[in-house]
Amino acid sequence: MAPRKEKTEKVSGNEAADTILTYLRKQNRPYSATDVSANLHNRVSKAAAAKLLKELHERKEIEGRASGKQIVYHAIQNSADSAGPEELAAMDASIQALKDETTAAAGEAKSLRAKLTTLNATMSTVDLRSTVIGLEAETQELRARLDSLRGGSVRPVTGEEKAGIDKELARWKKAEAARGKIAKELWAYILDVLPEDVQAAELRESLGLDG
């Protein structure tokens, strides 16, 4: 069941006129009779608002001007309330100061966002502790292996031995390349004389060339 709308208590007579006048002074902007009635939540009907606004205008308590097919009304501006040159200058200075503060605050906010992004991209304290524990365990394992090597029969390889091993490795690589070239040439020769009913892939597999 939809909730019942609360009935708005209507006002009339002088109370309605005072309500409209107070509203226009408070808002300090132009309104039509339709706007006034709607903004006052129909406490004053549209027809009553139009009549009262016209009367207040005729009594010069408010200002009114035509706007298209309707008349809009607004409170009379009191010239005594207008700011002088010194007050206007002070207001301008205050506005500029607020703009400067806003710019500075925006710059600081940008810097803080950048710092936050950097912090979010780095490892958390928990992750750092976990990494440290893992590295410490790895260090202990490496030290144990090193101590085992130092205390056993394994001895370091000398420079001369390493040079000899490298030389021997180079010799075998050269031999491997030469044999590979011979094998390639032989296989090309075999393909030239291979019968049509024999598949090259099956022959290579039977000879163990791809093993």
UniProtKB/TrEMBL annotation:
The UniProt keywords, alphabetically, are: DNA recombination, Meiosis, Nucleus
Where is the protein found, in the record's own terms? Answer: Nucleus
MF-aspect GO terms: double-stranded DNA binding; recombinase activator activity
Question: According to the lineage, what is the superkingdom?
Answer: Eukaryota
Q: Where is the Homologous-pairing protein 2 winged helix domain?
A: 15-74
State the InterPro entries in the record.
Hop2_WH_dom (IPR010776), WH-like_DNA-bd_sf (IPR036388)
Which one GO biological process term can you cite for this protein?
A: homologous chromosome pairing at meiosis
GO cellular component terms?
A: condensed nuclear chromosome; DNA recombinase auxiliary factor complex
Give the family this protein belongs to, as stated in its UniProt record: Belongs to the HOP2 family.
Record's PANTHER family?
HOMOLOGOUS-PAIRING PROTEIN 2 HOMOLOG (PTHR15938:SF0), TBP-1 INTERACTING PROTEIN (PTHR15938)
Name of the protein in its database record: Homologous-pairing protein 2 winged helix domain-containing protein
